[in-house]
Fold this sequence. Notes:
Elements: H1 2-22, H2 31-37, H3 40-57, H4 59-64, H5 66-77, E1 92-98, H6 106-115, E2 118-124, H7 128-137, H8 139-142, E3 145-149, E4 157-161, E5 165-167, E6 185-188, E7 195-200, H9 205-225, E8 232-237, H10 245-251, E9 255-256, H11 257-260, E10 282-287, E11 291-297, E12 306-311
Parallel strand pairs: 1-2, 7-8
Antiparallel strand pairs: 1-12, 2-4, 3-4, 5-6, 6-7, 8-10, 9-10, 11-12
Helix pairs in contact: 1-3, 2-9, 3-5, 6-7, 9-10
Amino acid sequence: MLRRVAGWLLALLLLGGTAGVLSRYVDLPSRLLAVVQSLVPLWCVLVVVATLAATWRHRRLAVAGLVPSVVALALLGAPYLRRTVPPGPGALTVMSANLEFGQADATQVVAAVQAHDVAVLVLLEVTPDAVRRLSAAGLDGLLPATAGSAEPGAEGSLVRSRWPLTALADGDGPAGTPSAFRQPLVRVQRPGAPFVLQAVHPLPPTAWEPQWRTSLTRLAELRRARPTDEPLVLAGDFNATDDHPLFRRVADGMSDVARDAGEGWAPTWPQDADVPPFARIDHVLVRGFSTVAAGTVHLDGTDHAAAWGTVR
């Protein structure tokens, strides 16, 4: 009796886990689906564990789980494969930090900029008070150029840079994007090698799934519209993982520096919450660059880890 109950339980776990894994290939307008897709690494682990458990006394079930387990292991292993180049002349570091209503520890943000020699910093959910605290902590001397705007609440976004910035859009994100968050598009005037950077912060799918879909779709259109020989960086809080088909559409033809650096799962959200971090939604995507290194930095006062990438 217990063996039969255990078999049914393992079958349900394997079936549910497999459905979760396969959800990453489904592109439908659904808030629930977006949430399920954000948990794909956990579904992968569930499939593998259920299959291994079934090998003890449920061999047929283990055989049924073989193919799903191979797919799950491939998805889990891919982010650990390194595709980096050695450091060299012209290397630069881009960092993105969501300050969560401007509450992040400004001293830690500036320390991270110094520790990683950050040349361009994307600040999201940046408030006027956060700007004052960052200035007092010494950010102005490190990254004097600025574009975008600080706003109360979660709407503000700034790009801070070692080099001059030229605004290419008014800060509302890709043309026509229905987002309450500012998303400045700028040209970073790096001497001899300028590049374009889009700060990214669409509305989250948990509450605004239609706007989230439209925002990421427009972001993919922006990426396609930019000349392919023009170096391009998309950095910010995408509110999406690489298990969301819409994110993969945005990232098509670009390199995710965290994946190139073999950072693995490395979830960035939520930090310091009742549940451990489970979703990597903060990204630095590049085109026209090769990845040297990448990583994350924990910041007190915010539910996001800062994401950074060094490229050349």
